[in-house]
Design brief:
Elements: H1 5-26, H2 28-47, H3 51-81, H4 87-119
Helix pairs in contact: 1-2, 2-3, 3-4
Bound molecules: adenosine-5'-triphosphate.
The site of adenosine-5'-triphosphate has 9 residues, from α4.
């Protein structure tokens, strides 16, 4: 069982859950996004948004938090392979941060489409 296909997949899932827990425990940006996600879910419950709007909202939350997690991993990898200042490392980190910015921008636009009609 330990080295079977299923055993390996279950172990891989365990590592992934551990990684998600580490992100939540140690990364301030993920913690902030987690709190914002909870607030947005409270807003969804308050305004009684539709099923499709919930799907879009969870998609946006997942997009932002997953890209932030990958950005964190890339930053950690960059710091590990090259702890000193280097323009290439700066470029890699900037590009990784840019992907989070794009995800966050899309999430804000989705939030606008969902909530502005309920508010105004
Ligand atoms: N080793 C480096 N060489 C060159 N530029 C760097 C280096 N480390 C960081 N930078 C520059 O500083 C910016 C911020 O990097 P940093 O690793 O502090 O990320 P951060 O977004 O502040 O992450 P966190 O808050 O999670 O530590 C990078 O986007 C990059 O422009």
């Amino acid at each position: 069982m330990k080295n079977s296909f299923l055993g390996k997949r279950i172990r891989g899932g365990g590592y992934a859950i551990k990684g998600a827990w580490l992100l939540l425990k140690h990364e301030q940006s993920i913690q902030v996004q987690f709190v914002i996600s909870i607030l947005v879910c409270i807003a969804g419950w308050y305004f009684e948004i539709t099923r499709t709007e919930w799907i879009l909202q969870f998609f946006a939350i997942g997009l932002v938090m997953a890209s932030e997690g990958l950005n964190t991993a890339i930053e950690a990898m960059a710091d590990f392979v090259h702890p000193d200042f280097h323009s290439k490392i700066g470029h890699i980190k900037d590009v990784a941060a840019g992907s989070v910015f794009i995800a966050a921008l899309i999430a804000v636009i989705i939030a606008g489409f969902i909530y502005l009609p309920y508010i105004f």
